[in-house]
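Quick log. Single chain, no ligands specified.
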Amino acid sequence: MTTPHLPKVAGINPPVTPPAQTPAPTSAASSADPLSPAAPGTPGTEGPEGAEGPGHPDGAGAPACTCAPANPSGAASSAWCGPLLPAPNALVQDRLAGWISDLTTLQDLTERLTRTGGLDAALHEALRAGAALVGARRGLVTLHPATGPGREHPVTVGFGLDHADLGHIETIPEAGRAGGDRPADPGPPESGRRTRRPAAPHPEAARPQPAYGRLFDDLPPAGSRSGTAHPDIAADEALDPRHREVAARLGYGASYAVPLETEHAGRIGAAVWLYDEPAEPTERQRHLVGLYRDHATEHLARQLELAEARQTVATLREELLPSRLPRTPGIRLAVRHRTGPLGGGDWYDALPLPEGALGLAVGGVSDSGPGAVAAVGRMRASLRAYAVMEGEDPVAVLSDLELLLRLTEPSRAATAIFAYCEPSDRKVVLAGAGHCPPLIIGDHRVEFVETSLSAPLGMLACWEAPSVEIEPAPGETLLFYSDGLLHRTGQPMDRAFARLRTAAAGVPKAARRDPDAVVEHVLRTVLPQEDHGEWEGSEDVVLLAAHFD
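-> predicted structure:
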């Protein structure tokens, strides 16, 4: 019969020849745990006197295998079968379970941070997650990089702190600037002795620090990402008395601060978490928040770059639009313009024309981003030139604009509506190219202007559409808008038009004499779910109202 081979343990061959037959367990071993070490005093184990058992051929005292067969005399054979695997250590299992739990927690927190939509939301999420990791209830984060995006506009966000609390924190003096902490005057130099001129401060040190940076004076220098803990602020005599006073007023007894630093962007800010009672994070908590901090800092640096780019596009966009609305006797104007995060292509214009007339225009170009913003500037400048020359004929203005677009930008489409207003005669002549019809809002009617159906600019070889003439009554408002207002509702176009008309009809009669109140009411009624202070929609929204006195 072929001799079986015992498996290798940790890559080591068995030191003795295996038995010639399949071993059978003894009666004593049948009730024992094969993974548990043998009890003291059993054959093959080391006894109390330190004698080695007979089962090990080298006399090393290793436990003997209890699975040897019985010999004919009935005595158990002590043939050694190799070293036994030790029992799984409960402490190792606990550590592995803890590591898995920590990794799962970090993955959940980083995924939540990645899903945030903007810089402000990312800062709040980073503070909330950090507070959960270190066991704190409040916190503060400030971003003020020395170079790169965000250097001109520091950002500070509090977690569990209101504006009054942040105001108290601002009163904490910076390190080295408390009362009486000035360096002593060296006095006049001695005769014949050269004085050394003080070294110029580092550019980053000379840069004005944000007020909240006073909580981060004792952070390690740039290049080190270790945190700084104050486990008992009230008893820390090294802190400024004003710092201890503010801590007592706000009700926090300890703090833990970490720098926000990346290899690419350098140190972009810092975060601090505040404890209600004297405490400090454990080594495990410091390690976890350090891992999370590294990921969060990279994400915040990207959000800073994105916010800077959006701000640049928004600034450029605003500069390309009218800085103020013209004042024309007999007509009062109001506008609402909300730019999407990518910089959409919707635009408007209001310009005074010869003989007391007024030109109004709303339009949009295809695509978004910087290219669309540049196209908006070209469209608006061209329309202004054509309106000054032949504004009394809106069809001619749009025809010239379409020819220019087709020759210079054949791959781009655009929509526009232009109105030539004569306040003295209370007459409006308008023409549209693929744009939504304006809306007349008055005490006795709320209806869309019946404009002729036409294609957008750049879609046909030769654009032409008839103009429409209307005569608004005194007290009525002519409302122009972009298609972004309808698209933002998320409804089909017929329902979006009905929603817009319902919102216009719901303007209170007392507010219909104020064009600013009209556009505000329509915007908040059509898009009630939007935060109109910080626009995060994908498309621009334009509302331009002209009220006839």
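The CA atoms of residues 25 and 67 lie 4 Å apart.
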